[in-house]
Amino acid sequence: MTQAEKTVRLQKIIARSGIASRRKAEELIRHGLVTVNGETVMTLGTKVDPVLDHIKVNGRHLKSQPPDMFLMLNKPLGYISTLHDPAGRPTIKALVPKPSLRLFPVGRLDYDSEGLLLLTNNGDIAQACLHPSHHVPKTYLVKIKGILEDPEIQQLRHGLMLEDGPTAPAKVKKAGKAEANSWVEITIHEGRKHQVKRMFEQIGHPVIRLKRIQFGPLNLGTLPPGQTRYLTDKEANALRHLLLEPESPRLPKRQPIRSTGKLPPSTPVAPSRPRPAKPNPIRRKRTLSPSGTTGQARPRRRPVTSRTRVNVKT
User: Fold this and answer.
1) Helix axes 123-130, 233-240, angle to 10 degrees
2) pTM listed for this prediction
3) Can you give the pLDDT at residue 276?
4) Contacts by 56-61, CB closer than 8 A, 24 or more apart
5) Which regions of the chain are under pLDDT 70?
């Protein structure tokens, strides 16, 4: 990694330290309350190295940025996906070890749902995992009431109309069959509230059991319920890759058409239109006038014959 890649925007470093939000950090910079290596910085977007540079906010030295920490939990049934609950219900805080850094869950699973839950201290990665623009897939193993038929699978694959709008197409396949119920594996990339449950209720199959088995590049695997593990470097780097902007698809280069005198088979040929017939002008003979010049021929008079009647008044 080069030195330029290690630098981060100043307001982002202040926000990550927990002193203030990013908007408040921008106000502190504009008011001249932030110094870098003893010099006041008032320009937003200034990039610094959080390890080498000495940053002070309102006279207080800013601690170095803590390292990223990622923890995977196989959440069992009967727990709230928060660290504190005003109603006193059991939370995942009782299942998570007490690390030296503050972790918070990415997304949530319902009280009666189970499966993969990610916890981290990196807010940018958490936001990237949940934002619809990144299309992070989430796969669930669902037990539904009744037998799922092929036409209903096609409905899920094409998208359903819910009360908050149409859903995006989902990947659906059968995962097993009980005596009177079906197991279904479904993958979506949206994050609406109770979306999977509402999708199956829309087609007449209420959800009996729901378990998340995959979240983006992470797979639950054989992690027992109620247990946690830290992510590997490969898994953590895959999450960091979500912060990169997706590349726009490149259009294929247009191949030049060689002039062979023939059109390619796929080229549509427009039907030829019949040309209108031009009027045929009447040509008149040109005769010589007594003066010797050419002129238009005068029409010949019909000669009087014996059959022609001539009325003579007497």
Assistant:
1) 70
2) 0.63
3) 61
4) 57/14, 57/19, 57/20, 57/25, 57/28, 57/33, 58/28, 58/33, 58/34, 60/19
5) 1-6, 18, 64-65, 99-100, 178, 245-314
52/86 same-domain check: no
State the Cα–Cα distance between residues 313 and 62, nearest whole angstrom.
136
Q: Are residues 77 and 207 located together in one domain of the fold? A: yes
Judgement on whether residues 87 and 19 belong to the same structural domain of the protein: no
pLDDT at 1: 47
| Rounded Cα gap, residues 230 and 82, in angstroms | 19
Looking at the structure, tell me whether residues 40 and 144 fall in a common domain.
no
138 forms beta bridges with: 188, 215
Among candidate residues 49, 53, 68, 110, the one labeled active-site is 110
- Reference 106, options 216, 232, 226, 222; nearest CA is 216
3-class SS at 124?
helix
CB 191 within 8 Å of CB 126: no
pLDDT of the residue at 30: 92
Cβ atoms within 10 A of the Cβ of 213, count?
Answer: 19
| Cα separation, 122 vs 126, whole angstroms | 6
Residue-wise DSSP of 251-285: PPPPPPPP--SS--TTS--PPPPPPPPPP-PPP--
pLDDT of res. 63 = 72
Residue with the two structure tokens 């982002």: 12
The answer as to whether 272 is a domain residue is no
Range of the domain at 19: 3-61
Residue 50 is predicted with a pLDDT of: 79
| 68 included as an active-site residue | no
